[in-house]
Amino acid sequence: MTPRLTLLLALAGLASGMPAQTPAPAPSASARPFTFEVDVDVVSLNVVVFDKAGKFVRGLGASEVQVLEDGVPQQVSYFQEASGPGAAKIPLSVVLVLDASGSMRTSLRFLQEAASAFVNRLEESDQALVVDFNEGVRGSGEFTGDAERLDRSVEGLQAWGGTSLYDAIHYALNRVKDQPGRKALLVFSDGADTTSQLKEQEVVDYARAVEASVYCVGIRGETGLVARSPRGFLRKVAKETGGEFFFPDRVGELVKAFAAISDELHNHYALGYTPKRPPDGGWRQISVKLNLKDAEVRVRKGYFAVKRRKPLAPAAGEPPSS
Q1: Measured torsion, CA atoms of residues 124, 152, 141, 16, in degrees rounded to the nearest 10
Q2: Cβ-count burial of 166 within 10 angstroms (0-12 exposed, 13-18 middle, 19+ buried)?
Q3: Which residues pair with 290 in a beta bridge?
Q4: Longest C-alpha distance within the chain, in Å?
Q5: Is 255 exposed, middle or buried (CB count within 10 Å of its CB: 0-12, 13-18, 19+)?
């Protein structure tokens, strides 16, 4: 069965329209994760707005924002600011995807410090999951808001083995895609992929289809070779999903990078609209324009509008499938 990505959202809660599914295992080489069956009633967007000084722009109203789908203006039916006085909290589900490969031996304590600081910045309505990877991929269990439990997962990281970066991001996307509210990945790696079964472009395509912002932090590994940096891939997957990419000069700056990501995840606008065109199986490009000078907008690039396939009729004498 092909995996299903559901973009049906209850506008009042920005929640997924399908029940949560059993977490997917790490992918195999024969997996076909990029065929989607989607009913698109409402498209939801997380929009981050900066001024020219790089500060978050707050207090915007729906009349100041225009959403275009393939260049055609859409009617915004839901608009909410996630921060500010009296703002209703939008649940956040975030997966920390952390490199625990052998090249991380000298940098692991800096990563643990940054990840723990991030966990302790989570708000009451937030939940997180820790996924660590080397030549394998491991999840910490279920999403939780328990900072102590998340800290224990971070503190237990051990550096060894190869780097299955692509497989880890795919696995994390599967885990987060049916969570309510805003969905995000915080990915950290210090080296290029060496042991994944999936390919780079496959993971980028999958990330484009899952409604989650991917924030990436990359540093040079202990070899110091730029050629082994995952910089290009991390930048690409972040840009496609409306996230951001950080490449600090020193490993000691990880806490600062993780804090910047935490701030952005809690300072955004949640928008919803019903597409004017019915699903046609294609990619829809999204852009957001503001009636505001010198503003920078960050939003995911688009989504796949694929019709749900009708189930095959059972053969004579067979019961209908559930």
Answers
A1: 20
A2: buried
A3: 65
A4: 69
A5: middle
Q: Which residue shows structure tokens 């067979």?
A: 318
Vertex 274: Cα angle to 125 and 78 (nearest 5): 40
Angle (CA) 201-233-8 rounded to 5° is 60
pLDDT of residue 318: 46
Extended strands (E) in 38-134: 43-50, 65-69, 72-74, 76-81, 92-99, 127-133
Please list, residue by residue across 284-319, b when 16 or more beta carbons sit within 10 angstroms of its beta carbon and e when fewer do.
bebebeeeeeeeebbbbebbbbbeeeeeeeeeeeee
Q: How far is CA 125 from CA 13, 88, 114, in A?
A: 12, 10, 21
Locus of tokens 């496959």: 202
> Which candidate, 267, 252, 300, places its Cα nearest to that of 57?
267
Q: In this predicted structure, what is the pLDDT of residue 223?
A: 53
Encoded amino acid at 242, one letter: G
Sign for the pseudo-dihedral over CA of 120, 15, 269, 40 = positive
- Helix 254-265 to helix 108-119 angle (10° resolution) is 30
Alpha helices by DSSP H, listed for the chain, are 108-119, 147-155, 165-176, 200-209, 231-240, 254-265
pLDDT of residue 50: 94
Low-confidence ranges of the chain (pLDDT < 70): 1-40, 84-87, 221-229, 307-322
Are 178 and 143 spatial neighbours (Cβ–Cβ below 8 Å)? no
148 vs 88: CA distance, rounded Å: 26
CATH code given to domain 92-265: 3.40.50.410
Residue 213 near residue 241 (C-beta atoms within 8 A)? yes
CA–CA separation, 183 vs 187, rounded Å?
Answer: 13
User: What pLDDT does 89 receive?
Assistant: 78
Task: Please state, in angstroms and rounded to a whole number, the distance separating the CA atoms of residues 172 and 149.
Answer: 18
Q: What is the pLDDT of residue 40?
A: 53
**Alpha carbon 135 to its chain's center:** 22
Token digits of residue 256: 């600062």
Using an 8 Å Cβ cutoff, are 271 and 65 in contact? yes
pTM: 0.81
